[in-house]
Amino acid sequence: MKSPSLIPLLLASLLGLGAHAETVGDVDTAFKLIGPDHKIVVEAYDDPKVNGVTCYVSRAKTGGVSGALGLAEDKSEASIACRQVGPISFKEPLPKREEVYSERLSIMFKRLRVVRMVDARRNALVYLTYSDLLVDGSPKNAITAVAVDRGTVIPVK
Fold first, then answer.
1. 99 with 114: CB under 8 angstroms?
2. What is the pTM of this model?
3. What average pLDDT does the chain have?
4. What angle (nearest 5°) sits at the alpha carbon of residue 96, between those of residues 108 and 14?
5. Residues 133 and 70 sit within 8 Å (Cβ to Cβ)
6. CB atoms within 10 A of CB 136
7. Is the distance from CB of 46 to CB of 54 less than 8 angstroms?
8. What start and end residues bound the annotated signal peptide (predicted)?
9. How far apart are CA 114 and CA 56, in angstroms?
């Protein structure tokens, strides 16, 4: 018999849950007669290991019938801006590089990823967003950084 405490961990790992995105808003970019319009969506997520930092990601979302059914492949372009929204503190030491957010852009193989890197020399957190495919990734990317006050040392693993 399986332990009940392992079920949530298994589900989280299968679903690829990291930080939870919250939709801030969207704008229509192209009218679709059937199904939702093509859009640019803006989503916010809090860094799961860094209190006081929120990242905002804007990306294209395909509409129409295929978009409504979740079968469309969204574009690879994305933009990111991470900001200090409160006092910065750390829940645990951070690895030098870690994926903090991932979202599916197509039904099978394409994902939008956000990676946090620690620039210990400058006491800053650098966030990179890019998309990848199972076989061939995209060179399209965006980067932002959050400077951490010198009085707060970033704990690194």
1. yes
2. 0.75
3. 80
4. 30
5. no
6. 7
7. yes
8. 1-21
9. 11
| Contact indicator for 146, 124 with CB cutoff of 8 Å | yes
Tell me the residue type at 115: V
Band of pLDDT at residue 2, cut at 50, 70 and 90: very low
Beta-carbon contacts of 106 under 8 Å, excluding residues fewer than 6 positions away, are 72, 73, 74
Q: What is the pLDDT of residues 4-46, one digit of tens each?
A: 443 333 333 333 444 678 999 988 877 777 877 778 889 998 9
Question: In 68-101, which positions are buried (b, 16+ CB within 10 angstroms) versus exposed (e)?
Answer: eeeebebbbbbebebeeeeebebeeebeeebebb
Structure tokens at 61: 């979302």
> On the CB side of 102, how many CA atoms lie within 13 Å of its CA?
15
3-state class (DSSP) for residue 15: helix
